[in-house]
Specification:
alpha/beta, 7 helices, globular, 33% helix, 7-stranded mixed β-sheet, two-stranded parallel sheet, 213 residues
Length: 213
C-alpha cells in the first residue's frame, strides 16, 4: 500500500508524493468533495489542483465521479478500467460526506479499497481525501455540513485505514482548526483511534514503512 495523506494541499514534503509514483506519473484528480460548491468556483479549484500537480512533474487529469453515477454516462466497470490506467489518485479536500456519497454512487467504493491495499494505485490527497479512508466518518459532522449531501448520508468510511485522520489541528489561519479540535476531543473521549495532523504534515505509507513528515 502506498499513501500520501496530507493535512492541507501538498504539504511541506511533496517530494515524498513524487517518490511514490513513477517518473511523470499519471494522476487521476478527484475533486468530488467540492461538488456542492458553485460550479464556476469548483472549476477554478480543480484548475488549481491540476496546476500544482503539474508543477511537480506529474500528469494530472480530473476524473469526475459524477459521470459514473446512476445518472451519468458511464458505469462502475468503466470507472475501474479508467482508474487503473493511472499510477495514482489525488483526492482533494472539501466535504467528506459529499465525497463519500460520490464514491458510492459511482461504484468506486466497491473496488477502490482493494486497488489501494494491493498497491495497484497510489492514493494521495488532503483533508477529506484522507478522512474518507477511516472505518467511520462519525464525528466529522462537527466540521463538515451533512446537509450538503443530496440524499442519504453515508457514515461508513472506506475502511482502508484502521484509524481516523484529524487534519488541520494546531494550524493557525485555517478556518476549520477550531472545529477539528472538537473532533479530536470527541475521539479521545470515546476511545476512537485517530491520527492528528497539522497543516504541512502528511502521513506517508510505503509497504511496511509508515512515517509522518
Amino acid at each position: 500500500m502506498k499513501l500520501y495523506l496530507s493535512s492541507f494541499r501538498l504539504g511541506d514534503h511533496p517530494e515524498r508524493l513524487v517518490a511514490l509514483l513513477p517518473a511523470s506519473g499519471r494522476v487521476a484528480v478527484i475533486c468530488n468533495a467540492i461538488d456542492a460548491e458553485d460550479p464556476a468556483l469548483r472549476r477554478e479549484k480543480v484548475a488549481a489542483e491540476i496546476e500544482w500537480l503539474t508543477e511537480l512533474g506529474l500528469r494530472p487529469v480530473e476524473v469526475d465521479l459524477r459521470s459514473y453515477s446512476a445518472g451519468g454516462a458511464r458505469g462502475d466497470s468503466d470507472l475501474r478500467a479508467g482508474l487503473t490506467q493511472y499510477d495514482g489518485l489525488w483526492v482533494r479536500g472539501g466535504n467528506v460526506f459529499v465525497l463519500r456519497v460520490a464514491l458510492a454512487r459511482s461504484g468506486a467504493d466497491k473496488f477502490l479499497p482493494d486497488l489501494i491495499r494491493s498497491g495497484e494505485l497510489v492514493y494521495a490527497g488532503y483533508s477529506a481525501g484522507p478522512c474518507v479512508l477511516a472505518p467511520s466518518l462519525r464525528g466529522l459532522e462537527l466540521c463538515d455540513d451533512v446537509t450538503q449531501v443530496e440524499g442519504e448520508v453515508i457514515w461508513e468510511g472506506l475502511g482502508v485505514l484502521d484509524e481516523a485522520i484529524v487534519p488541520h489541528l494546531n494550524s493557525p489561519g485555517h478556518p476549520e482548526t477550531e472545529l477539528v479540535e472538537k473532533i479530536a476531543e470527541l475521539y479521545e473521549r470515546t476511545g476512537v483511534r485517530h491520527l492528528k495532523l497539522r497543516d504541512g504534515q502528511a502521513l506517508v505509507v510505503a509497504g511496511e514503512s509508515r512515517e509522518v513528515v
